[in-house]
Amino acid sequence: MARLGVGLTYVPGLDQILDAAADLLDVVEIEPQSLWRVRGDGEIAVDEDALGRLADVPGARLLHGVGNPVGGCRLPDSRHTALFGELAERLGTPWVSEHLAFNRVTDEAGGFHTGFMLPPCQTEAGVRSAVRSVRAMAEALPVPLAVEIGTNYLRPRTGELPDGAFVRRVVEGSGCGLLLDLHNVLANERNGRGPVEDLLAALPLDRVWEVHLAGGVEHRGYWLDAHTGLPDDDLLALAGRVLPRLPALRAVLFEVTPSAVPDLDTRAVRDLLVALKETWPRQMVLPPLSSPPPARLRPGTGAETVAPHDWEYALGGLAIGRDPGTPLGRELAADPAVGLLRDLVTEFRGSAITGALRYTMRLLFLTLGPGGVRDLLDAYVRACPPSLFASDEAFTFADHLTRVRPAVPWLADVLQLDLGLLRARLDGSPCTVALGADPTALLTDLGAGRLPVAPRRGRFSVRLVDDEGPVRAGESAARKDAS
Fold first, then answer.
1. At a CB cut-off of 8 Å and minimum separation 6, what does 38 contact?
2. Residue 184: exposed, middle, or buried by beta-carbon count in 10 A (0-12, 13-18, 19+)?
3. Is residue 316's pLDDT more than 90?
4. Are 36 and 47 a contacting pair, CB within 8 Å?
5. Strand 217-219 to 208-213 pairing
6. Which of 1, 8, 295, 305 has its CA 20 to 30 A from that of 390?
7. What distance in Å separates the CA atoms of residue 238 and residue 75, rounded to the nearest whole number?
8. What is the radius of gyration, based on Cα positions, of the chain?
């Protein structure tokens, strides 16, 4: 198979740039979880309307998982893997990718999500756990699987395998391909994990099928993999040195987060795509795209300093504000990056809630201010472990608000409106809610960014529907039948 070429990862709001750069796009990468909906009965289904809207996006297709990583003790969720494979067949993707990380932890209560993808345990036992997870996903997919090297903000630890050696052993032991995110590895270098060149020297570069580029930002003394804009000069220079060294490379993608899309300049994105095409020399012959047979894991030289389960329990607990109460937990708590991870988890969860409960969060900000909302979110994060899907996070946060009852006028009614809109989106059918205040006044004032002023009281029955497929933040459609 020939290479796919250069392209973008798809996020909501990117359509104008995709149209303007259509003549330069060879491939577009889609996150499958963005096309899934958790219905009221708990079942996960593909959002056919959202999938249909991607039909006219130019270029070939790739799929990049963001919620079912393969670096931990717990095997990837088989339901998610099955949906992943179904989408891969429908879209005709030649391979798919997922992160070499973990986001679920097993404990005596049944386990919890971490709300953020965290670095795996880099010991020999960690290699075996990751190989088991990668193989479990790869064997259930109809196309080959590549794994991505993630960002690791933690300080290197005595006795752990170096980043490159760990990744090599996992890739060779599982027989998978490799997604080399150059921004991730540059961020790791900037944050003290070690030089990029040392990492590259240890990696099996002939397994790299895909490369990612992105922008970042400095925060609290760390360089964050925030996908906030265009790659900086150092990253572009790194790409210029590395891309010609990858004999099996088939795709180079630029990633950006949805919140950064409004600040993207179309001409700058076009210039980036042109520069990447010039940097990456066209190869006439590529090796066949296939997963080599897994190599037998020979005993390594790394010390068995930490068991993977203990690592995930300690780091995962710290990331969501829990005290694991273990020696490893106390050791990891001394790493300044743990505080950063807690902030990122809170920010990530707050962003998910804001997208799902648009009017509720606006009312909270207008009433309590940023500091009050931050205190409310901090208390919520401490009380409730994260959920994988934004919709589940929204329902849990709504329950939390009902319990703590902050002194916010109209909160109960606005929350019911948001939850009704969310249910209409997820179930694809109208949802009727009962309110004690005029919904038109509430939605009009909050939609304009102001607090409602004495909305008419009474008994209102509001039928909420989705007129154009899934209701998204900023695109809500409501038909109101007041009585």
1. 44, 389, 391, 392, 426
2. buried
3. yes
4. yes
5. unpaired
6. 8
7. 34
8. 23
SS3 at position 460: strand
Q: Two tokens at 444?
A: 């009009």
The 10s digit of each residue's pLDDT in 116-143 is 999 999 999 999 999 999 999 999 999 9
The label of the residue with tokens 């990612």 reads 212
Q: SS3 helix, strand, coil % of the chain, rounded to 5?
A: 45, 15, 40
Q: How far is it, in rounded angstroms, from Cα 110 to Cα 101?
A: 20
Instruction: Supply the pLDDT for residue 56.
Output: 86
Rounded CA gap, 59 and 183, in Å?
Answer: 23
Does an H or E element contain 237, and which?
helix 233-242
Sign of the torsion formed by the C-alpha atoms of 434, 436, 440 and 444: negative
Pairing of strands 478-479, 457-464: antiparallel
- Tell how many helices (H) and how many strands (E) occur in the chain: 16, 17
d(CA 292, CA 138): 12
Q: What is the pLDDT of residue 298?
A: 67
Q: Are 197 and 134 in contact (CB under 8 A)?
A: no
The string of pLDDT tens digits covering residues 67-106 is 999 999 999 999 999 999 999 999 999 999 999 999 999 9
The overall longest dimension of the chain from CA atoms, in Å, is 74
CA–CA separation, 474 and 421 (whole Å):
12
For helices 124-140 and 163-174, angle between their N-to-C axes, nearest 10 degrees = 40
Q: Please report which residue ranges of 280-307 form alpha helices under DSSP H.
A: none
Name beta bridge partners: 179: 148, 210
β-strands 251-254, 208-213: how paired?
parallel
The one-letter amino acid at 276:
L
| C-alpha distance from residue 70 to each of 129, 149, 183, 322 (Å) | 9, 11, 20, 24
CA distance 5 to 109: 46
Distances (CA, A) of 158 to 72, 262, 307, 411, 452: 20, 43, 14, 51, 57
Q: How far is it, in rounded angstroms, from Cα 404 to Cα 23? A: 53
Closest CA to 60 of 95, 11, 13, 14: 95
Q: Cα separation of 59 and 199, whole Å?
A: 32
Q: Tell me if 8 sits within 8 A of 30, measured CB to CB.
A: no
| Averaged pLDDT, 32-51 | 83
Contacts of 168 (CB under 8 A, 6+ apart): 202, 203, 204
